[in-house]
């Protein structure tokens, strides 16, 4: 008769392999050092003896046994029991069960003794009292050596035990303390006993370090035939591949499951092609369900997910778990695992535990995904990410130091220069790869990750280590200035030997609002004082300002800091990070800051701190010679820049007052479908810097009020804040869909307002790196760019759902709305109490600033172009897909003139002073989609000159001086010169 129960499987194997070793307990580092073995015949004999003792002297349901008896059990693995070590009891509780092969039940309550009576389930395989998280048989033979990696309180131990003993293989057991000695354990497993089957957690495996993993575990001559990784997220394929010799034959499995449904539920054999791939995926699938196991993914509403994110549910007719007092379970019951996955192409990819997906700075952050990303860095051997006191984001890292030496310090300090270098390098990489809310507040180098008895990361122990080291560091800080310096460095993730400029601002030195809050709490806690405005000073002031404020909070005798000395700036530039001052307290200081001007499409101009004599609202008109049309005007190519893909974005030109010779006076900023943002010299076209973003760029760039940030939207849903000098990412804000809208900047508050295809308009504070408000625009994507009227604190935004909204700029509340049945691709513009926008139905609509329709002008094609005003003439200009540029009277919408181009007019016209082109008055530049740039006299629409580019044009021209800049669909950005010569007489 075929074997039915687990015990009968072991008996069958013992009958075939009675003289083979069944179990080896090795207490030392060598095969002959403290090793004790049992043959299969000895195992069965001891098991039967112990069974008779227990049945004779104990209740059939539960009993208490002595330490000696349990030690005998550990050696003999008898028929009826499995046990729990209870830390509160000096003895062990053992619950008896008849072991059968069908359903598997496990108990998780912690009473000292209980009777297990399960009506309807007489075929229980085992009862296991466990702290948390059995399985798919692999092809195991009598020649295998299976390592018992898990303690008996961790359910994978059941898999190891019966996998070995039902196959006639050898089960290898070592003391728990050996698992804390990676080098000795490696010798024992791979040299002395030639282990062939290894089922471990990734954390336990990574404790061996890259050298042992490469030379022993996954070498070309490795004894390991099967490596099964479970209990935690599987390491990324690139990391596994880095450990594996190209001739290694080990089969690597990703196994997944939960305690509640009998340990393992899914299994995925990682193919060699994946490990050898040049561009492997970032994660490994969970694989297919095991036999008689049902796996489902459900969303938050309980609906089955076939593509996308959801929670894993596991169950089946014959896989049953009874929890916390349950005595029955409905066959087919599926247990919620608390694990979230992504379903893609019929494969499940692990995201993390639900309680490991948190909100930080209002944005979702998956701690497990962050941990996997850090683990993929070349400097990282092992990593664990967690929250300290529920707020501070910490990354504990075992560095991949040269020679496979572990880091000697558990906390970066000035005395460990190599550690400081590693910390700085890792944090720098993370700041480039991640949005600011995902970058750890502190990176803690540790010699190894603490483990629980089950081989998983012991996060509580790591947090205790951090708390001790942090307290020690603050206690050694000394005087007030040292205390502030220590907190400042820690908040910014800087090594202890990096100097801080006393005039640096926390935000400009790399901080954000969350880091500022941590610094505020740390300082007040360490000093034992309170202050309601310290956070504001940290955000707006300098290091010196904060130090002065703190000095006023403590009695003079308690502070040994010389405030007079702190005012003195260093004689030479500091070697550390030099921040910029974010806030000036006097008007004189404000005017001393370098001014700048930003010119964008539709002749929009934003000026900050420019000399009053140079200031204008929208347009500069110079009184040049009255050349009128008595000159030949030409538009010729000056320079071009290849971006790699089509350029539909419109340029922004930044003009600076800087007196420095190494700072360009005029810079062009523009994005491309190649994912690139380029900064070009306006005069020469030379590339100053280039930055590759996450996806295509169609939106025009803007510049923050402080002038140090370039703001641009991207198809990946991000709004990128880049350093204007280098292009490095300073902040990335993620919306819910592509951002094709061009940002608008409030010159008063500094808010950056931008629309997204997720249907919202967002108001972002780049200084605090947070979203101040967002508003849903009533349906449809927000493609057009918002227009703000700073003096009236009003914002105008339009959507593809046909909504034109007037919002309060400071709160996002709706002031009024206007609705049409057709989408708005055109961006709104305003002047003199009028708000104008084009519509896909061919209309150019003008509304009062109170929301009433004043007039509308009907063109003969859809209007995608945005209106541009000519304030001196009380007229506006707007193009249409009928190929015409229209000049309309602002008061009543009557036609002043029209100009027929040779293509459709998608772009927005640009008005500019004609002096540089030898013309008195104002000119208008506009592009048609066939690639022609037209320069017209704004008074009557007469053509002045034109130039045709070798590609379609959807970009809008921007003019400064005698240079016109525009993008083209042939992948280039062009700078064209306007020149004038007297006509021949």
From TrEMBL:
SUPFAM superfamilies: Acetyl-CoA synthetase-like (SSF56801), ACP-like (SSF47336), Quinoprotein alcohol dehydrogenase-like (SSF50998)
Name of the gene encoding the protein in the UniProt record: AASDH
Entry similarity comment: Belongs to the ATP-dependent AMP-binding enzyme family.
Keywords from the named record: Lipid metabolism
Disordered: annotated span: 558-594
Record-annotated Carrier domain positions: 478-554
GO annotation, biological process: amino acid activation for nonribosomal peptide biosynthetic process; lipid metabolic process
SMART domains tied to this protein: PQQ
Stated name of the protein: Aminoadipate-semialdehyde dehydrogenase
InterPro entries: ACP-like_sf, AMP-bd_C_sf, AMP-binding_CS, AMP-dep_synth/lig_dom, ANL_N_sf, Beta-ala_Activ/Resist, PP-bd_ACP, PQQ_b-propeller_rpt
